[in-house]
Design brief:
The complex is a heterodimer of chains A (51) and B (168). Chain A has 51 residues and is an all-alpha fold. Chain A has helices spanning 2-7, 10-39, 46-50. Chain A has three helices and no strands. The longest helix of chain A is centred in the middle third of the chain and has 30 residues, at 10-39. Chain B has helices at 2-13, 24-28, 57-65, 90-97, 114-124, 127-138, 144-153, 157-164; strands at 19-23, 40-45, 69-71, 74-77, 80-86, 100-104, 107-111. In chain B, a hairpin with a 2-residue loop joins strand 6 (100-104) and strand 7. The relative contact order of chain B is 0.16. The chains are: A mainly alpha (51), B alpha+beta (168). At the A-B interface, helix 1 and helix 2 of A face loops of B.
């Protein structure tokens, strides 16, 4: 862990946070679209089908 | 990130703020493993006003004139919402005054010292703040004795004890 931390600069760590945020944004948008489809009756919910 | 830092530096050079330092998760990433955050926390010292009241409106106006987009309490530059905070208490005032000058890809800026990042996190006192202090300690990124001394000076020794005992 220490080696890993030493090997990453502040800039690299901030860029990795930016990438995490970008992935998070894509995941949230995909979830929003899936829920919208579900609400419109056009999707299939695994949760609903499981019960 | 560079556009955020350039904007902050320009606030100083234009006299809109007297000084600033980066704290929060972005400041912490200077010392420890990166943790996800959606904004940049800049702690600022504002010029004193005649009324004695603190107003951030001049800061927001200046940032907007530099191309920042005001969104609720943030000003967005590119991917990064910037939150402007003030030297609201003696601990934060000391943290800004003693911040270290660093460089972000050629752009000069200032970051809280590790001890101050931890003490401000203890003062803020949310679960994620205690976790950050634990990470500093576990990763050997802060001198525990120096942090304890700071915590005692600002009435945070109990909270520091909780983190050290794993009770937070």
């Amino acid at each position: 862990m220490r080696e890993y931390l030493r090997s990453k600069t502040w800039v690299e760590k901030v860029e990795s946070i930016e990438r995490m945020n970008a992935v998070d944004k894509i995941a949230k948008e995909a979830m929003r679209k899936a829920l919208a489809r579900e609400a419109a009756g056009g999707g299939v919910s695994r949760f609903r089908d499981a019960h | 990130m560079q556009s955020v830092l350039r904007a902050l530096n320009r606030l100083v050079s234009d006299g809109v703020i007297l000084s600033y330092a980066i704290g929060g998760a972005i400041g912490a990433a200077f010392y420890i493993e990166a943790a996800q955050t959606e904004d940049v926390d800049a702690f600022t010292v504002l010029p004193s006003s005649d009324s004695g009241l603190v107003s951030l409106s001049a800061v927001y106006e200046a940032l907007a004139a530099m191309g920042g987009v005001v969104e609720r309490e943030y000003v967005r530059f590119g991917n990064w919402p910037l939150q402007i905070l003030t030297d609201a208490n003696p601990l934060i005032a000391e943290a800004i005054a003693e911040a270290v000058a660093v460089d972000y890809e050629g752009t000069p800026t200032r970051v809280f010292r590790a001890e101050h990042l931890c003490a401000v996190a203890l003062q803020t006192g949310r679960s994620k703040d205690y976790l950050r202090v634990s990470m500093f300690l576990e990763q050997g990124a802060v001198d525990p004795q120096a942090l304890l001394s700071l915590a005692e000076r600002f009435g945070l020794a109990d909270r520091m004890g909780k983190v050290q005992r794993g009770e937070s």
